[in-house]
């Protein structure tokens, strides 16, 4: 008979004593439980003791978290958090260097626990930490432990970052700016500054002023991967906290210092694999850089702006310079205006008498004009060839340069998500972005020539404009999905994907769709579905058994802390626990926390999850909502909360957990996988029927023959 829900069987250890095996009554006050445990070992003053987990992070047991204790847990009787905090508070003030170092080392470890942190901070312990740093007498190991303890204590959000003194901040900054400092101290200092920057404008200004971009670039160029990562983290925090003008100036300075080329050569193409954290920062850097175009994208053309009109006129002059100069001296003003209108029509403006009207639509706004001017100035030969080639065609067959440029700019903005906020978890960046200055404009130059090429291949007329742009969008998205490493490679691949190739791809997809719509094929699909769904279920459970590395994400920032979760091979227990950076697949024995599958009640996703509701007061991040899920176990108050690293992982985990709960798999990935498997299975089964049309109805069964004497009657032989 299973024990009651309010009773858990646990072991309690103490150094130098025989462990106790007890049944913990969850309804019994924790103070009474401690009294009984201490009495069994004849220990006085039970209030000076506490229980904590013997393995893993060794969290203290409190009334608020005692329900997390599982059957079979191993606890340890130890000094209570208030006693420990008092001892360490005294220890870190010791004149004995060894005692002080050991106390700081222990403080750095225990500060991860929220109960201990609260006790230590309530004794004004942070003031002592400030003093150690501000006095600046301690270096090396002692200072590293001090900074680590400070970081862990601030992580609990009991104290505002704005309470830090100017002297403390400048001391942290000095460790970043000094050369002769241990790398571990610089990493911790960069991490502290990264936490500091988003909390207030004042702290942002202090850090921005004290830590120069040149210094951050120096740290980025070291071989120490962790120091490089922390420097990138601080750079990203500064960029995200800056105003639009400051961000533009910072990005311009970084461009002058060739940061893109350095990242492309030494980070993206380094011998070491790119970690998830660095991939996220590169995505953010790409997103911030591309979003600098947002201002021009949302700005309509002002027909009264002389600067904008000059840009517009420069397009006409670059294409028809010699003709305009020859005619300028001989024609009247009216004749000259008529000539300009004709030339703007050749450029492909719909409103040739007032081309500024074409650029009033925002987006793409002035960004389209900027792209056209960049194309005309940086690739004048290609620009002239485009205009003159289309000027010589029949009116209905000419590819309108201006109209195409405006629509292409809009397409590129949508594909590259310009104007959209950065995701907290995304890691998808384009390697070729970091290999090229003026990436957006250079990409436009390639794609506008692709428009002209595709227009000719389609033998399009003005009525086909939308069809051509639809094909161009498909060419660009299909090529970008291949993640080309340079713009040259992108250009090669996108030009190879010509209109006939697009037609072949579309035809293949359409034929596949038509094949699968025949009635007999649909019936066969339904018969195959159960078997293939079972295959998908097995794959999902196998993925859960392999496990996944998850990151802890708070409302304030992207966290460095990692934890791993995996299903036991017998599919009966979920094991999870904290792991260090760089650990890919920890053994199941090292994951100390457990949830029996039998105790799992339900699966929550998105807004239903408690860890997304906790953030409801702040700005909801759509990306996190799409990746969040929680397992409710035992009673509904207790959940294990996840934020999947990718949408793919989210789908596999939610499917796998639904399988464990005996429910249907509901993710979009299930349908995709099922379609792929069905398609492969159907193709194999219908291989012999290639080029044979399958009728909707089965052929009629012929009538039986009139004479059945040829059939041998076995009944006579038996008699």
Automatic annotation (TrEMBL):
Domain ELMO, residue spans: 307-480
Cell cycle is among the record's keywords: no
Classification via Pfam families: ELMO_ARM (PF11841), ELMO_CED12 (PF04727), PH_12 (PF16457)
Signal peptide from the UniProt entry: none
Molecular function terms from GO: SH3 domain binding
PANTHER family noted in UniProt: ENGULFMENT AND CELL MOTILITY, ENGULFMENT AND CELL MOTILITY PROTEIN 3
Name of the molecule in the record: ELMO3 protein
Species of the source: Melospiza melodia (Song sparrow)
Gene: Elmo3
């Amino acid at each position: 008979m299973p024990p009651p829900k309010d009773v858990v069987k646990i072991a309690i250890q103490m150094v130098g004593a025989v462990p106790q095996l007890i049944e913990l009554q969850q309804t019994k006050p924790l103070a009474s439980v401690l009294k009984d445990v201490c009495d069994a070992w004849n220990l006085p003053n039970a209030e000076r003791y506490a229980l904590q987990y013997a393995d893993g992070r060794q969290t203290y047991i409190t009334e608020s978290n005692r329900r997390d204790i599982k059957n079979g847990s191993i606890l340890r009787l130890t000094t209570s958090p208030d006693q420990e905090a008092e001892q360490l508070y005294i220890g870190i003030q010791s004149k004995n260097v060894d005692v002080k170092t050991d106390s700081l080392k222990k403080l750095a470890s225990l500060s991860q626990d929220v109960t201990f942190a609260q006790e230590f901070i309530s004794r004004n312990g942070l003031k002592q930490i400030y003093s150690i740093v501000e006095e600046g007498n301690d270096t090396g190991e002692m200072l590293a432990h001090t900074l680590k303890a400070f970081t862990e204590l601030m992580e609990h959000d009991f104290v505002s970052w704005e309470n830090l003194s100017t002297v403390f901040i400048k001391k942290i900054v000095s460790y970043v700016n000094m050369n002769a400092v241990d790398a571990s101290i610089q990493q911790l200092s960069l991490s502290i500054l990264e936490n500091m920057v988003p909390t207030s404008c004042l702290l942002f200004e202090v850090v921005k002023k004290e830590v120069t971009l040149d210094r951050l670039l120096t740290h980025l160029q070291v071989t120490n991967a962790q120091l490089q990562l922390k420097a990138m983290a601080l750079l990203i925090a500064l960029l995200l906290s800056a105003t639009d003008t400051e961000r533009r100036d910072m990005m311009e300075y970084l461009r002058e210092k060739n940061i893109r080329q350095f990242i492309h050569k030494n980070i993206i193409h380094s011998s070491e694999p790119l970690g998830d954290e660095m991939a996220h920062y590169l995505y953010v850097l790409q997103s911030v850089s591309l979003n600098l175009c947002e201002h021009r994208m949302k700005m309509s053309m002002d027909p009264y702006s002389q600067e904008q009109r000059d840009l517009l006129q420069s397009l006409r002059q670059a294409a028809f310079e010699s003709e305009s100069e020859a005619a300028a001296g001989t024609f009247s003003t009216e004749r000259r205006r008529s000539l300009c209108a004709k030339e703007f029509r050749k450029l492909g403006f719909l409103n040739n008498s007032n081309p500024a009207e074409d650029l009033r639509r925002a987006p793409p706004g002035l960004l389209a004009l900027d792209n056209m001017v960049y194309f005309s100035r940086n690739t004048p030969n290609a620009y002239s060839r485009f205009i003159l080639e289309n000027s010589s065609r029949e009116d209905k067959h000419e590819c309108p340069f201006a109209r195409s440029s405006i629509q292409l700019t809009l397409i590129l903005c949508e594909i590259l998500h310009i104007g959209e906020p950065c995701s907290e978890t995304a890691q998808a960046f384009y390697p070729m972005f970091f290999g090229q200055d003026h990436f957006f404009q250079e990409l436009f130059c390639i794609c506008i020539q692709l428009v002209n090429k595709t227009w000719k291949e389609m033998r399009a007329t003005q009525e086909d404009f939308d069809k051509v742009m639809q094909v161009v969008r498909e060419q660009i998205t299909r090529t970008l999905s291949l993640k080309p490493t340079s713009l040259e490679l992108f250009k090669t691949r996108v030009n190879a994907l010509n209109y006939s190739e697009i037609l072949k791809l579309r035809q293949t997809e359409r034929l596949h769709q038509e094949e699968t719509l025949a009635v007999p094929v649909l019936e066969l699909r339904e018969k195959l579905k159960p078997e293939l769904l079972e295959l998908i279920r097995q794959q999902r459970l196998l993925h859960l058994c392999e496990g996944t590395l998850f990151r802890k994400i708070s409302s304030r920032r992207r966290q460095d802390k990692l934890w791993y979760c995996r299903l036991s091979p017998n599919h009966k227990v979920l094991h999870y626990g904290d792991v260090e950076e760089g650990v890919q697949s920890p053994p199941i024995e090292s994951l100390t926390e457990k949830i029996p599958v039998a105790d799992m009640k339900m699966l929550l996703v998105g807004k239903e999850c408690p860890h997304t509701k906790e953030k409801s007061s702040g700005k909801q991040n759509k990306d996190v909502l799409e990746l969040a899920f929680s397992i409710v176990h035992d009673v509904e108050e207790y959940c294990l909360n996840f934020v999947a690293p990718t949408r793919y992982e989210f789908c596999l985990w939610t499917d796998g957990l639904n399988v464990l709960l005996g429910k249907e798999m509901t993710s979009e990935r299930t349908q995709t996988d099922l379609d792929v498997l069905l398609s492969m299975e159907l193709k194999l089964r219908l291989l012999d029927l290639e080029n044979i049309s399958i009728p909707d109805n089965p052929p009629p069964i012929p009538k039986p023959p009139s004479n059945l004497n040829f059939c041998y009657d076995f009944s006579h032989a038996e008699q």
